[in-house]
Please model this.
Amino acid sequence: MPSSSDLFSRPLALLLVAFSLGCGGSVGASSEEKAATDPAPKPAPRPEQRPPATGDQAIVNHLEEYFRTTDDVRRRELVSELESLPGFDRNRLGEWLHRMDLWPALEPGIHELEIPVGYGHRRHVTLRVPKGYDPRRPWPLILALHPSGGSGDSFLPVVVRLLGDRADQYLIAAPTHYRQTVLDAPPPFTPEHPVMLQVLRQTVHVDSDRVYPVGYSLGGYAAWTLALLHSDLYAGAVSMASSYGLPPDVEGLWRAFAGNLRSLPVLHVWGTQDGLAVPGLEGRPSSVGSMSELNRRLSGEIRRLHLNVLDRPVAGAGHGGATPARAELFEVLEGERPHYPSEVSHVFRHIHQASAYWLEGHRWVGDAWGAGGISVEPQRGENRREAQSRAVLELLGRLEGKVSDRSVTVTSRHLDDLTVWLSGELVDLHQPVTVQVDGQLVHQAPVVADLGVALAQAARTWDFDRLRWAGLRVTGGRVRPVTQGTTFPPLIETP
Model:
C-alpha cells in the first residue's frame, strides 16, 4: 500500500484548481507586547486579600491545581478535598474540567508547532486558530491531511475553502509529511497521530467528542486509516480521492476490519474517472486496477458488510475533482463521538492502535507484523495469495467487547495486558457486574466509581469528555482494579 513518499506524485496545484484557490499567504501569530513601565519606581502594592473561592469556582480551582502539579501526594489530597467541597457533583465533572484556565489565549491566525512523535522524529503542524477563539470553551477540531507532494500549510487553505463561512467554527490542524497513512505503512512505526492529538489537546481547548480527520488523495487514505485504527478518538472522517486504507489484494482483510467502523461514520468521495493506479500489499504491484475500479469494488463491500460509510461517487470526476456536497460534509462534521458503545470490535497492527472505546491493550504477545514485512510460506493446498492473506490475518491483534444487561464479555488476540474501562454510561455500577476476559471470569461484584481514577485518566489523556471512572487491569490472567496510582505504558515508547 502507498506511503507518504511514493504515492500520488501529482502536484498539489491540481487539487487547488479543483477548489478554485490561488496561492495565498498564511497569517502569522501575533506577538505579545511588552508592558510599559513608569519612569520612576513606586512601592510595590500589597497583595490583594481575596476571600476564599466558593461554589463552582472553588471546585475549578482545585481541578486546576490537580493538573498543574505532578506531586502524587498532593493530587490525592486534592481528590479528597474535592469530594468534600459543598456542591460537588460527579455528574458535573466534565463541565468543570472544561472550565479550567489551562489553555493560553492564542491569537486568531496561524501558529506553527513542532511535535516529537517518537523514534527521534518530529512532525510540523500548522494550526489555524479561528476568529473569536475563546479558550474558556471547547472547540471542534479538524485534522487536515494533505495529499502527496503537499504540506500542512498548503492544504490548510483548501480545507478552509471547503468549510466556507463555517470555517471559524473549527480549530484546524494540518500536519506535514506524516508517514502512518495506511495499515501497511513502512517503519518507523510511530504513534504520530494520537501523539499529535494529545499535544493539540494541551495547546488549544479541544472538544474531544468532535475531532474529524479530513484528507485528500494520500490524505484521504490517512483519514480512512485513522478512522479504522483509532476510531475511538474521532467523531467522523472525510476521505476524498482515495480508497480504503487497507491492502486491496489481501483476501478477507476488508471483512476483518468492518467492525472498526461500527460507531464512526466516514464520508467517502471519489471520482468515477480516477485512473490512478493502486498498489497492493506493502507497495507491491497489484492487479486491482485504477482508483475508480477499486472504489467500485469497495462500494459493493460497503453495502454487503453494512459499513458505516456515506459512499459518494462523483460522476465524471478524475483525481482532482472529488469534493463533497456541503450538506453531507457537515452531516459528518457536526456529529459527536460515542463514549461507551455496548458492542465494540477492533482489529489493529501495532500496540499503540489497541484502543477501542472502553477496551485498551498495553502489551503485545506473539508474532508481530514488524519492519521485516510479511513472510509468505504457502501450506499444502494453498496458493501464494491465500498464504499471504492467512499470514496477514494471523499477525493482526484484536479486541472485542459486548455488554448485555450487567454482563461484560471481552475477547482479545495478541494481548496479555489490557484494561476494561467501566462507567455508568456502560453498566449500572451500583449493581453486581460480571466481567469475563478471554473465557476467564475476572470480576463479579459492584464496581466503585473512583474520582481519583477519573482525574488520573483525564490528566493522562487530556480527554475531558469520555471520563473513565473505573477499570479492571487484566495482566497474564491476573486481575486488579485500576487505582489513581496505576501506571500505564507511555504513548511514546523508547525503541
User: Anything to note?
Assistant: The chain has two domains: 104-333, 343-370+377-481. The longest strand covers residues 206-216. The first helix runs from residue 12 to 18.
